[in-house]
Design brief:
Distance between the termini: 48 Å
CATH class: Mainly Beta
Largest sheet: 8 strands, antiparallel, barrel
Strand content: over 45%
Radius of gyration: 22 Å
Number of helices: 2
Order of helices and strands: HHEEEEEEEEEEEEEE
Structural class: mainly beta
Length: about 250
Amino acid sequence: MSNGHASARRGVPSTLRTGGFLVLAWTGVAAPPLLAQVGHEPGSSPFRDVTTRQELTLFGGRFGGNPGEAGVGARSGPITGLRFATRLSGPLELTVTFASINSSRYVIDPDSPVTVRTTGPVNYDLVTADLGMLFNLTGRKTWRGFAPYLGMAIGLEIPANGTTDPGGYEAKQNFTFVPTFGTRVTLSRSLALQLEIRDYFIRYEYPLRYFEPTDTTVPPVLDPTRYDEKDLTSNWTFSLGLSYRFTF
């Protein structure tokens, strides 16, 4: 990726950096905390067992919307959601996450003059749902009350009111790929805070008229010499949650 041809705005370098970081972390970062448990008396050890198996988390934060190269995608806005997690074997957990995003977007008519062809922003509320796996770096224990984790999820991002713009762009549902990094902070046996960073990778598809407008007297929305109707965007999201732990 050092040739510089990929635009940071389109999220491709971010994809590779995030993927590489997760692979490295999954293979090497977990070992030191787990090995550090050896040699401590039970009463003085910084590690404590997590005795519950399930968790329900209510969270809120900020969706860092990236509207893409054309500028018609989802923009930044508040996010609220709910997650259910259940422990599997070892350090792994299965998660189901639902969230609502209060976003906005711009509308483009590619056949209008540049000075008037963009309107908005207009409301663009989203609902997301994803299924994922978490890897707890300290296993089934906490370290001084902290339990950092890495995760990956796949899901859907669905607009509350899908529409088709004058230029043919469709504001519709998209698949999402969601790498995750976070930590839990134990408050009691049943309660914990959850600090998390997620990156929603969302792909937008642009119509031909963004590159070749019907009215040839106006410039195109996107450079036709770099024609690529697919645009992968990186949408960093930060959240704080309160988790209730239990076993059933």
